[in-house]
Amino acid sequence: MRLSDQLRVAGIGIRARRLRAALSALGIAIGTAAIVAVLGLSASSQAGLLAQIDRLGTNLLTANTGQSFTGGAAQLPVAAPQRISHLPDVEHVAHAGAIENTNVYRSPLIPVVETNALKVRAASLNLPEVIGTSVAQGRWLNPATERQPVTVLGALAAQRLGIDRVYPGQRIWLKNQWFYVAGILKPATLSTDIDTSALIGYPAAERYLSYATVDKGKAVAGPPTTVYVRARTDKVESVQGVLAQTANPESPSDVDVSQPSDALTARAAAKGAFNSLFLGLGLVALIVGAVGVANIMIISVLERRSEIGLRRALGATRGQIRTQFLSEAVMLALLGGVAGVAAGALTTAIYASTKGWAVVIPVQAWVGGIGAAIVIGAIAGLLPALRAARLSPTEALRTL
Amino acid sequence: MSRTNVLELEQVTKTYGSQPPVHALRGVSFTVRSGELVAIVGPSGSGKSTLLHILGTLDRPSGGTVRIDGEDVATLTDRRLAALRARSIGFVFQQFHLSEHTTVLENVADGLLYGGVAPAERRERAAEALIRVGLADRAGFRPGALSGGQRQRVAIARALVGRPAIVLADEPTGNLDSKTGAAIIELLHELNADGATILVITHDSGLAARLPRQLHVLDGRIVADSAARPMEDA
């Protein structure tokens, strides 16, 4: 018997009872849709994050104060940023110094313990452009304001202090004095500690917060605690290799060098790990769907005894009857699977486009979804098909 | 004029169950030659249905020999029996057994589905068979749109489409009024005149009397065979 005939005969059984076929395929459709949507959404959000990393650039390196050999806190030399800027293949260098034991409040009336986990950092003037952010509102520091009690807030810092708009004369309470708020930064994805900071100029830090260290016999503002380095994209590794020695030639091991985009890439990979709870639910729906298909096929065999008898009389072998019912079950499940993949893909497309992500449906999601549907249909249809084939022709015709 | 035997039964018995055994057939022997039109007639419970199943190879006899188109049924596997049904036997049922989900033409073409005939040829031959039963203009209809008599004609066309050695008709007029039934018998006569070998199973002795040869079955035995007379007299 030809394949086209097999398909036609199997199709007649489904077309004859459309509503019933649709309902029994629904379970499988829901299961497949859930699985495809879970895989598609996690892949799409991963793609979105990777695209963002690409936009921000992977050539940013940071040199942080690490721990000294004895376990105490190390310190970066004040001259580190300048030395690093002399390295070949380094394009831009910025730096920031975290000022310890200094908290920032909306007003002097706020209890001292409510620090909001915010930090005060002294920042070089080119910091925003080097770490890949810009001001959302107001202005960044300039050579004049960096000497004054003026601050620019990171995105989260502004949110936690309850400042959503910059207006003239707006102040915050910083180490027992008022600092004017000049601007608010956009989120800095590559260096999230800037988000929770109130940024001030180095001269202001020295003057108002006594943030100073001794260098070559005189007091200077600093030291920096993080140096941000933009290297030429194709030379990132060679720069990374010499960064520690350049920052602190005396004890390079006190310097922590890292590449922030690495951490983000790892986060993207973690986002790609799909939500196992929803996958499990999808699997349960698939199993329920399989039971539905098996149920419908068993009823179908009982109802269609006369058709089975007739087909045997027309010369169908047991094998052909078995194949007919088996392919009907597989076709039913396949319809459900295809509908489910379409629904899952649509869900992914809609959600991803609202988030501005690229729509990614992994091949294994839809191939796996349809493949699982076929396997489930075959398993669900096996018992009913064997029953149909075992039915003796006289018995099948007697019920008439 | 030499005619081959399409059907030969020798001492066929069929017993169902064991406690107590039911003897549906108790040694049936007869021969049907190519081109005959035969009625097997008997009251219900006489063993006609069992005989039909055995003639149609839907069931195997408990004893004796059945030869269809020269082949001893007992030696054939299930698969070969199915092939024999597809090739050599056409069935007509009291309840028609047409599929409501396809057209009249497809229903007739399904008579060739298991005989290894290509789809295009199946439809071509089905159209010819519909012409033979006078329903060429109903080819595209659903069986549900036809009258009972027309449906039985479709079923007859399906039985004939493979040009089988023998057509087995089980109470073909049982679901029809007497006038329509008479037309169906008339059709069977015409098809027989064209060369088809037809065996009609019926409880209606009036109907049987209108066919050239009658085999009377009672309690699992052939009690009378009108072919005992020389056929030339008929």
UniProtKB/TrEMBL annotation, chain A:
Keyword Cell membrane applies: yes
GO cellular component term of the entry, any: plasma membrane
Membrane topology of this protein: Multi-pass membrane protein
A Pfam family hit: MacB_PCD
Residue ranges annotated for the ABC3 transporter permease C-terminal domain, each copy included: 281-393
MacB-like periplasmic core domain boundaries: 22-239
GO MF terms held by the record: transmembrane transporter activity
UniProt keyword annotations, A-Z: Cell membrane, Membrane, Transmembrane, Transmembrane helix
Listed transmembrane segments: 21-43, 277-302, 329-351, 363-383
Domain of life: Bacteria
Localization in the cell: Cell membrane
Family of this protein: Belongs to the ABC-4 integral membrane protein family.
Protein name: ABC transporter permease
Native source organism of the sequence: Actinoallomurus iriomotensis
Lineage: Bacteria, Bacillati, Actinomycetota, Actinomycetes, Streptosporangiales
Automatic annotation (TrEMBL), chain B:
Keywords on record: ATP-binding, Nucleotide-binding, Transport
Cellular component GO terms held in the UniProt record: membrane protein complex; plasma membrane
GO molecular function: ATP binding; ATP hydrolysis activity; transmembrane transporter activity
UniProt-listed PROSITE patterns: ABC_TRANSPORTER_1, ABC_TRANSPORTER_2
SMART domains per UniProt: AAA
Domain ABC transporter: 7-234
Signal peptide: none
CDD domains in the record: ABC_MJ0796_LolCDE_FtsE (cd03255)
PANTHER family the record matches: ABC TRANSPORTER ABCH.1, IMPORT ATP-BINDING PROTEIN
Protein name (record): Peptide ABC transporter ATP-binding protein
Species annotation: Actinoallomurus iriomotensis
